[in-house]
Amino acid sequence: MSKSEAKAETAEVPSDIEEEQLNQAIEDLRGALHEETAAGDGDRMASLRNNAIIMNIPVDVQIMLGSTEMPVSELMALQKGSTVALDRRIGEPVDVVVNGQKIARGEITVLDNDPSRFGVKLTEIITVGKTPR
Question: What pTM did the predictor assign?
């Protein structure tokens, strides 16, 4: 995919409602993580220490571009230069998975400060009980 194709794909902007929902979900998460108890200073300090411990726990973040199934014979026939067709099309959202749990969807984008790298722009935060579109 050329840089111009990648930039054309990222030209799609989520609607104001989706962006507002995304921002609200992010703020809700921040509030839950930084919430302080109404108790005394000792409890607040313990809470801050606990938050610091939690914030330093490593998590496995994966961006799922797509998947495919193939027989072992096809897998064994793969070689350098082979192309594997995935179950998603160009422009479809990718899944953001943390420790095996899908938490968001996004679109592939080229980094402004380093056009040789790409990243994922989050377009939807998946909330508990919500089925992704």
Answer: 0.54
